[in-house]
Structures are given as C-alpha cells and as structure tokens.
Design a protein that fits this description.
The structure is a homodimer of 268-residue chains. Chain A has 10 helices and 8 strands. By secondary structure, chain A is an alpha/beta fold. In chain A, strands 1-2-3-4-5-6-7-8 form an 8-stranded parallel β-barrel, surrounded by 6 helices. The longest helix of chain A is centred in the first third of the chain and has 18 residues. Chain A is globular. At the A-B interface, helix 7, helix 8, helix 9 and helix 10 of A face helix 7, helix 8, helix 9 and helix 10 of B.
Chain lengths: 268, 268
C-alpha cells in the first residue's frame, strides 16, 4: 500500500496559519515526520486560500518547502488548472495530482498538465451530473469514461488512482460496502489502474472513529486497494496495514513484516 | 459474529491447575468475564487430562461449573466420543461440539451424539489422509463429505460450523490467504452452513501477534466468516470486530454500533 500523507492541508487550522505566515519550519516538520513514517507522497492542499490566485502561490510554496525537507514527491491537491500548474512548475520529478473527476471541463484542465509534467492522477469516480453515483456499476462506468479520456490525453492507465469516494456510515449503512464493491469492480474492470481512498470520511459523525477507520482500511486492502490518503504518523493504523499486507500473501517469509518489527515500526 | 470464548482451556497452566484442584471459583470467574464481554458459547477443554477417563470427568465438571455461573451454552472441546458424552449428559440445552473432522471414525463417534443432544458442531476441513489440505478446493471437498455425513446423521447444515484451519504465516506466506479463500468458497459451495476460526494460529511464531490477529479477524469477517474462537475480554479486538460488522452493511442507522459505544464496549 502506498501512503499519501494527509497532514499538510489548510483545512487544519495550524497548517492554514503556517501557510498564511509562510512558516517554513512548521511545514518542514510535518513533511519530515510523514516521510519518516513511510509516506510515498505528501499531499499539499491550500483549498482555503482567500483568493483563487493565492491557491497557486501557496501550493508552489508548499511544494518547494516539502521538497526542500524530504526526497518525496508531492500530491498536489486541487482541481483548478492554474493552481496545479503553478505547483507543478516548481515540482522536481513526477508529482501526483489530486484530483480529476468525470466532469469534462476538469479533465480538459487536468489531463494535459498531467501529461506535460508526467504526473500520477487521483480520479474520483464522480461526474458533474451525479455527485457520488449510488452503485459500484455506475461508479465503474464513470471510471471507464475517465480512463478513455486519460488514454486520449496520453496518460497510461497505470498512472490513474481511482477513488470511489466513501461516504459516512452515518448517512447510509451500505456506504462502506458500496465502496468496497467498487474497489473490487474497478480492479477487475480496469486492470492495471490503481485504487485509492481517503479513509476517514467513512466514520464522520460517529464515535470511536479510529475503530471504523482501521476496520475499513483492512477491508479495503482485502479488496485490492493500492493506496490510501491517511495520517502516516498514526502508528497503530499503519502497523495494522502492514500486518494486513503480510496476511494477504505478498510477503515471502514475512520478511517485510519482520524488518518493520526490527525497525520499531510495529509499535511498542 | 458469534464469539466462542476460548479461555477455559487446560493448555493454560492456571486453568489446568484449577481443573485438577476442582477450583470452581477460578473457573466461574473466567466464565463470567467472558459472558459479560459478549461470548455466545464458552469453550471448555481438558485435553491435557492425565488419563482418557479423566477428560470426560473434567469436562462434565467444567460444564456444570460454567452453566452454574452463566446462562451460556458450552462448546465442548474434544474429539473423543466418551469424553463428549460425559459432558453432554450434564449440559442443559443445546451445546456446541468442537470438533469433528473428515475422518470416518470421528464422524461415527461424534454425529450420533450431536443428533441425540441437539448440538451445533464445529467441523475442521481436514481428513485423516491429509492433515490440512493445501488448497481451498480440496478443503471444500472435505467439507462436502462432512456435510453429506452430517445430513445422513440427521444434523441440519445450519448447525455445522466449518473451520478451514489457519496455519501460521511463519510456515507459509499464503496460509492466511488460503484460509480466507476457503471461507468464501465454503459460503458459496455450502449455503446455510456456517464458518468459524480459531484466530490466533495465524500469528504463531511471529512478533506483535495482536496486529496479525486483528487484521486477520477483519479480513475473515469481510469474507463472510460467522463465528470466531477468541478471547472475548480482548476489548480492542472485539470492538474492532463490531466496527467491522457495521462497515459490512448489516447495522441500519449504526444502531448496534452506537449502542455498543453507549454501553462502553468500544473502548476508552
């Protein structure tokens, strides 16, 4: 499982303040702790910028700070073409874009940039017509339309990370199940394409969220999910994910599990 | 998920001593704490009895102590007909027998008792010829043979709990995966029959066993497993299982999850 570290997001008050004040030290610390905890990408989000032009400036600054502090690529979190381009222009190496969706205008803005800068792309299986489609078959159809458009733009299927978007169980008891079915259907229907999720929506509005988030991550890995946007410094969550990968048969002689244990990454 | 409480087992030194000394108070405490933690059955095992005749006497004593302290049925843990019968004779209501397997002699000893006393039966998908078959298809074939024999003895499929037996990941990286596939194959191939597992074998010989056990329980529930033999007083494990049941869509309005939270069963 590839981890996209979620912590550099201006929806968190302290991060919003650090971005406004250009407090590089604060952002560097968040970048380093997530890199040390095993993140493969670091999400940078400035969705709460006051002016549209500001978002691109903020993202470009965040990219340069993050890449100054770590060797990791950023996952640039915006659907606005100008903001993405401002960040990608200063990014070293191939970044990840988070995200495109089935809306033709968004795809027209994002895919040419992804092609130009050689990016991976997170694609939510949503269209403008229908914000989150009800069933896994409908979500697959949106994903297929996105895949066709990506192929047309010269982006290989392997660089797409489909996010079926999970809604909270508090608003529908089948929401997690539909997500899990969609991951299975996507892995089968679009072989080669990857799947990803932001985990924590599933438990929004419910108590003891960590239990639901952990169970959900394990179930999603069991369905073949490739990546997750989460807090890599949640050691218990990440250790459970690593144990799950070993349970799923991809760890000969449990070598990776034992290495993680020796390195103290499986908890106390 | 039905929980079979695993703690009253003479392989644990303190339990072995309590059974030898007929220390009813010690056993009653173990029975009560497992009942309060949500067990549906309480396993009683005296496999380390010194003489074969002793095992039946021990089991009968354990059943009467457990049923004196709680309202729960016992899960009588032996494959020896005489020992099982000694325990079932004193058991009130329908017990569970743990276990039968594909060996004709064992089935001939156990199924008539199960029929006579109206028991549920745990059936491991093993035969004498081949201790633990390698693949899920082979395990299904053993289960089908057991199901045929049970039907012949008048035991409904709904009363069978198939245990595909998980071997430790330390002895084979695909062991958990094969178990999980077998659960799926059994649920599909023998509709109505239940599935069950003793969890903790999966992590034998590996560090941080709780991580592997938790991940394995969640994955098994995701494959449709109906019951598990585990320590119900492991609050974090059971809370994670309850969260997983809610994630799997069977909890309208999250009512059971919220009730468990209000009752303090989801941890601190």
């Amino acid at each position: 499982m590839e981890i996209v570290g979620e912590k550099i997001n201006t929806s968190r008050t302290s991060v919003g303040q650090a971005v406004r004040e250009r407090d590089a030290g604060f952002i560097e610390a968040l970048a380093r702790e997530q890199a040390q905890a095993g993140a493969a990408y670091l999400d940078v989000n400035s969705g709460l910028a006051l002016y549209p032009e500001q978002e691109g400036e903020d993202l470009a600054w965040l990219v340069s700070v993050v890449q100054g502090a770590t060797d990791l690529p950023a996952c640039v979190d915006s659907t606005r073409g100008e903001a993405l381009e401002a960040a990608l222009r200063v990014h070293r190496g191939p970044a990840m874009i988070n995200s495109v969706n089935g809306d033709p205008e968004t795809m027209a803005a994002v895919f040419p940039l992804a092609k130009q800068y050689g990016c991976k792309v997170v694609a939510t299986t949503t269209s403008r017509a229908e914000r989150v489609p009800a069933g896994s078959r409908e979500r697959l159809r949106v994903a297929e339309a996105i895949a066709r458009e990506a192929t047309r733009a010269g982006i290989p299927l392997e660089d797409l990370y489909f996010d079926p978007l999970v809604l909270s169980l508090a608003t529908g008891e089948k929401n997690a199940l539909t997500f899990l079915e969609t991951v299975r259907v996507l892995k089968k229907g679009l072989p080669g394409a990857k799947t990803i999720a932001g985990l924590s929506n599933v438990s929004f509005g419910l108590p003891q969220r960590r239990l639901l988030n952990r169970g959900f991550l394990v179930l999603a890995l069991g369905c073949g999910m490739d990546a997750a946007i989460l807090d890599p410094t949640d050691r218990e969550l990440v250790a459970l994910a690593r144990a799950t990968e070993t349970l799923l048969g991809g760890d000969p002689f449990c070598a990776r599990y034992l290495k993680a244990f020796r390195e103290g990454r499986l908890g106390p």
